[in-house]
Amino acid sequence: RGCVILMARKSNVEIIKEQKNTIKQLFGAYTILLCAAAIFIFSLHNLFINYRGAKLCMMYLLAPIIFFISNVINKEIGYKNAMMSVGISTFVLFFYGLCIIYNSFNLFSCLGFTIAYLFSQSVSLAIYNYLLVNTRLPIAGVIINYIFDLLIYNMICMIFQYNMIFTDTFWLEYILLVLFQGVFAIVLSLFDSIVVRGID
Fold first, then answer.
1. What is the pLDDT of residues 35-92, one digit of tens each?
2. Which residues make Cβ contacts (< 8 Å) with residue 94, sequence separation at least 6?
3. Angle, to 10 degrees, between the axis of helix 170-194 and the axis of helix 139-161?
4. Four-point Cα dihedral 175, 181, 187, 188, nearest 10
5. CA gyration radius for the chain?
6. Which residues lie closer than 8 Å to 51 by C-beta, 6 or more apart?
7. How many of the other CB atoms lie within 10 Å of CB of 145?
8. Do residues 157 and 116 touch, judged by C-beta distance below 8 A?
9. Ramachandran angles phi, psi of 26, nearest 5°
10. Which residues share a beta bridge with 51?
11. CA geometry: angle at 158 spanning 154 and 159, to 5°?
12. Residue 5: is its pLDDT beyond 50?
């Protein structure tokens, strides 16, 4: 009996070690993915789509992707790891922004995007984690969370981008962005519902 108990303890210890190693590997992979996605989206700050007199920046239109990735990290390896990934990606993003400031960009816009990214991601993860822990993660709740976080993200980014000056097309662009992002968020929410919850 003693040998059986000892073997069971060893196997439990081995399982825990394997889980920790898996979490470390997933954390590294997901953090790299989040950093790459954030940098890619950030690099689209000079790419615009003209729609009914409004200029819609691709940096905003594709923003739901970074929220989706951080939500997947939260679901797969936990809230703390997701927040750590967001923190690391914010740090990487800011220094990447500093590197391209001299190429048609400015520190004010870079700072605005970084603040918007960190703040909206933190709010998004907090709400998503609450839904994950206390509910069955309803799609409606996930969609509302996406849209709410994008409202914050867009407002902060655009205020910094326009140097706190509200132009004639500011609100038109803001509303159109939210509408396009909302459709994108619905699609991502459906994908989110497919992702199975991973290691706790």
1. 999 999 888 878 888 877 778 888 888 999 999 999 999 988 889 999 999 999 999 9
2. 110, 111, 114
3. 150
4. -140
5. 20
6. 176
7. 22
8. yes
9. -65, -40
10. 54
11. 120
12. no
Token pair in block for residue 197: 């919850």
- Integer Cα distance of 134 and 132 in angstroms: 6
- Rounded to an integer, what distance in angstroms lies between the CA atom of residue 185 and that of residue 195? 15
pLDDT digits (tens, 9 = 90+) for 108-131: 777 888 889 999 999 999 999 998
Stretch among 20-34, 55-69, 166-180 having the lowest mean pLDDT: 166-180
- Block residue for tokens 């394997």: 18
pLDDT of 29 reads 92
Residues in the chain: 200
Contacts 24+ apart (CB under 8 A), 96-99: 96/39, 96/42, 97/42
Residue at token pair 């060893």: 10
64-77 vs 79-99: helix crossing angle, rounded to 10? 140
Q: For residue 114, which of 132, 135, 133, 87 has the smallest C-alpha distance?
A: 87
